[in-house]
Write a structure and sequence with these properties.
With 424 residues, the protein is an alpha/beta fold. The strands form 3 sheets. A 7-stranded mixed sheet has the order 4-10-9-8-7-5-6, sandwiched between helices. Helix 8 links the parallel strand 7 and strand 8. Helix 4 packs parallel to helix 11. The longest helix is centred in the last third of the chain and has 22 residues. The chain is globular and about 70 Å long.
Length: 424
């Protein structure tokens, strides 16, 4: 008779996205941050080479954002924005975001993060077509390797199969389909096979993040735009990672010249200092809900913390820092430095299969025998944080406030860690 499996103990907190036997007893307790660095409870000082989960754009513990939160909480922590009620900070942030939006005359839906934003955008896309009387347009298309959060819709449209498995159906939300990562012909074929009259929207990251840092191939996004317009399919651009400067422009939509119907955002809007996300909505979508008539329909969106006053105050302060400190031009400079350093790394190291850079986002893909997880662990010992992504890829996305010397040291540490792994 076999022995019963051992059930591991550990803290009450269930870690996110974790194979628990692999992480329990090895967790790094982060207790302090400053600029590009984090400090752990056991005394380590670590360079944050991933900006947390792509979000710590202005660095950690910025006093202006702490002051904004403190001041706002003493005035009003929050009040909801349902029906007749609204708070002044949500109103102010809405106007600020509409002014920055790559969509002209946009309306702004606020919520608590990127997964929320994707759920709202996909629901709104379907709601749009139902209101238009085109009831069959319900399918949401997305791309292989895509990551759009882990709420029900994000899970359903994920192009990462490990995030879709184990729930008893092919898709938690029905009527979803995926196409190849850069395959315009595949997208055209899917539209023909499914039928344009059955497709509500195509959702895409301009630069895939969690899927392995995949910038668009030349002409790809332009081709997507053309196919969506030709077939009356809404284009939803997921800028949760790229929004608010990560590509050197406020939105990657501008960098690639896109004309989306909906843009989702989160992370960089507050640099992670408060949970906040949302959707920028084009006039084509919002105008019918604003008609002055008793029969005008309602879009039933909204959550308790949508338009949270303190989160909005923090977002406004964050946008001030990005603009006042001229961080977007700095990102453009850092992109060039990163591309140069990673090209040199790839030339030196046999274990590197490919390097990819889009904005201040980098991916280093490794040969199968050199595991990205092991390299990331070695980097921790050297004082640097990276993260293994799909495709045996190391993530590189430091805060915008990093220096050239710090970036050089990060890439040098990766070089050293790869040398160690290659010698084993």
């Amino acid at each position: 008779m076999s022995a019963s499996p051992t059930v591991l103990a550990g803290p009450a907190l269930w870690p996110a996205q974790a194979h628990l036997p692999s992480v329990l007893g090895r967790q790094l307790v982060i207790e302090r941050g400053e600029g590009c660095y984090l400090h752990t409870a056991d005394g380590r000082r670590l360079y944050d080479g991933t900006a947390g989960l792509w979000h710590a754009n202005i660095g950690h513990s910025h006093p202006a954002l702490a002051e904004a939160a403190h001041t706002q909480m003493l005035k009003l922590e929050t009040y909801h924005i349902f029906a007749r009620f609204v708070n002044d900070q949500a109103l102010a942030l809405g106007e600020r975001l509409a002014g920055l939006s790559p969509i002209g005359s946009a309306k702004v839906i606020l919520n608590s993060g990127g997964s929320d934003a994707i759920d709202v955008a996909c629901k709104l896309a379907r709601r749009h077509w139902q209101r238009e009387g085109r009831a069959t347009k319900t399918t949401i298309l997305s791309r292989e390797h895509a990551y759009h959060g882990l709420h029900a819709y994000g899970t359903s449209i994920a192009g990462l199969e490990f995030n879709r498995e184990g729930y008893g159906s092919e898709s938690l939300v029905p009527e979803t389909a995926r196409v190849g990562v850069h395959d315009l012909d595949g997208l055209a074929h899917a539209i023909e096979t499914i039928g344009a009259d059955n497709i509500a929207a195509f959702v895409t990251e301009p630069i895939q993040g969690t899927g392995g840092v995949n910038p668009p191939e030349p002409g790809y996004l332009e081709g997507v735009q053309a196919l969506c317009e030709a077939n009356d399919i809404l284009l939803v651009v997921d800028e949760v990672i790229t929004g608010f400067g990560r590509t050197g422009q406020m939105f990657a939509t501008e960098r690639y010249g896109l004309r989306p119907d909906l843009v989702t955002f989160a992370k960089g809007v507050t640099s992670g200092y408060a949970p906040l996300g949302g959707v920028l909505v084009s006039p084509r979508i919002w105008e019918p809900f604003y008609v002055d008539d008793a029969s005008t329909p309602i879009f039933r969106h909204g959550a308790t913390y949508a338009g949270h006053a303190t989160a909005c105050a923090v977002a406004l302060a964050n946008l001030d820092v990005i603009e006042d400190d001229k961080l977007l031009p700095r990102v453009a400079e850092l992109e060039l430095v990163l591309a140069d350093r990673l090209a040199a790394l790839a030339a030196r190291r046999e274990s590197v299969v490919d390097v990819r850079v889009g904005g201040f986002l980098g991916g280093v893909s490794l040969r199968p025998e050199v595991k990205a997880e092991a390299v990331a662990d070695e980097l921790i010992e050297l004082g640097f944080i990276s993260r293994p992504l799909r495709g045996n890829t190391l993530q590189i996305s430091p805060p915008f406030v990093t220096t050239d010397d710090e970036l050089d040291a990060f890439v040098a540490a990766i070089d050293h860690a790869l040398a160690e792994e290659e010698s084993r």
